[in-house]
Each structure stands twice: as C-alpha cells, then as structure tokens.
Amino acid sequence: MDLELAPHHEAFRASVRELAQGVVEPHAAEVDRDHRFPEEAVEAARRAGLMGVLIPTEYGGAGLDAIAFALCIEELAQACASTAVIIDVHTSVGSEPILLFGTEEQKRRWLPRLASGELLGAFALTEPAAGSDAASLKTCTSSLPAPDRTSEPQASALSSCPPTRTACASGRCSRRWA
Fold first, then answer.
1. Does 162 lie in the same domain as 110?
2. Residue at 1 is within a domain
3. Which of residues 120, 141, 165 is at a domain's end?
4. How far apart are CA 128 and CA 138, in angstroms?
5. Which of 52, 130, 160, 175 might form a disulfide with 136, Cβ 3.0–4.6 angstroms?
6. What pLDDT is attached to residue 59?
7. Helix 81-89 crosses helix 39-47 at what angle (to 10 degrees)?
8. ∠ CA 37-99-134 to the nearest 5 degrees?
9. Which pLDDT score, from 0 to 100, does residue 72 have?
10. CA-CA distance, 136 to 63, in Å (whole number)?
11. 178 in helix, strand or coil?
12. Using CA atoms in the order 120, 125, 131, 135, what is the torsion angle rounded to 10 degrees?
C-alpha cells in the first residue's frame, strides 16, 4: 500500500502551508487572546480558493477531493485552530449538505456564493437548555409565515459567524406543524 501523497496533493499542501504560515499564523495569538473573528485569515482563504475546496468547478469551487480538504484543514490548524474550524464548518456543515442533498436550483443559487466566500457557512448549535448537545436541541424550523409560527427557544450562539455575515440555522422537530 502506497501511503505517499500524490504530487498534486503535495503541491496543494505546500500552497496552503505557505498561506497558513504567512497570513494566518501571524494573527493567531491575537485572535485567541482578543476572542475575535480572524477576518484577514478568512479573506486570505477566500482569495486562495479554499472556501470551495470540495465544491465542484461547475458551481464555482475548486473541485478537489477529501484528501485535499483534510490537508487544507490540517495546515490551517497548525497555524490557527480558530481559522481551521471556521473553514471546516463552512465546508462540511455550511456547503456540503447543499451539495449532497440540495436541489439543482439550490446548488446553483448557493454553492457559487459559498465557494467564492461571498457567504460564510455557519451553524447554530448551542441553546440555553441544551448547551452543545445536538440531540437535545429544541429549536424547530417551519415554513409557516412568521406571524403564524410558534417558536421554540432560539439558538444562543453561532459558530463561525461574525455579525456582518449570513448564517442559516437548522433545527429539529418532534412534531409536525399544522
């Protein structure tokens, strides 16, 4: 069994490492100390095409594979765990469900904007009564207009989402809306 990376994966790893060491790492301590969103690191990742690593080229992404994605997250994490988590969540929770389960219309509407970094994928998980236990979430989703909707407790935090970005929150529901 050959465990060596293919040349294109080695080249990709080297390019992400250069970005991580040159742009991400110099801000990592400040990001952690000040509890701030790493805007410059995410912008650099956006410019480098890392926001759409797993998104096919037909939707504006890089069209790379899971090995490339793992290498990307690994290199970013060595420089700044916060930045790595943001890119990982953007890809695996924000973009990939649309790619795997979305309609063609949804893919064409959202994936190019996610791949370019125009939109940043995030998720709402923490609730006052559930903490970060996904199985205990109470927030429900509904297609009813707002005045007709009864809302369960709202999520109290968004992962990866600065106030100037857009996030889509999901919930679980044990009952059907009338």
1. no
2. no
3. 120
4. 10
5. 130
6. 98
7. 50
8. 60
9. 98
10. 35
11. coil
12. -150
| pLDDT tens track for 13-64 | 999 999 999 999 999 999 999 999 999 999 999 999 999 999 999 999 999 9
CA distance 61 to 99: 11
Find where tokens 């857009």 sit.
Answer: 166
Residue 73 in tokens = 């997250």
Same domain for 33 and 88, yes or no, is yes
Q: Is there a single domain that holds both residue 116 and residue 72? A: yes
Count Cα atoms within 13 angstroms, Cβ side, for 4.
Answer: 5
Q: Domain range spanning residue 178? A: 122-178
Write out the H or E segment, with its range, that includes residue 159. Answer: strand 158-159
Evaluate whether residue 104 is within a structural domain: yes
- Tell me how far apart the alpha carbons of residues 170 and 125 are, in angstroms, rounded to a whole number: 8
Residue 96: which of 75, 69, 132 has the closest Cα? 69
Tokens at residue 70, please? Answer: 């793992």
Q: Enter the pTM of the model.
A: 0.78
CA distance 49 to 88: 14
- End-of-domain residue from the set 103, 120, 137: 120
Evaluate whether residue 153 is within a structural domain: yes
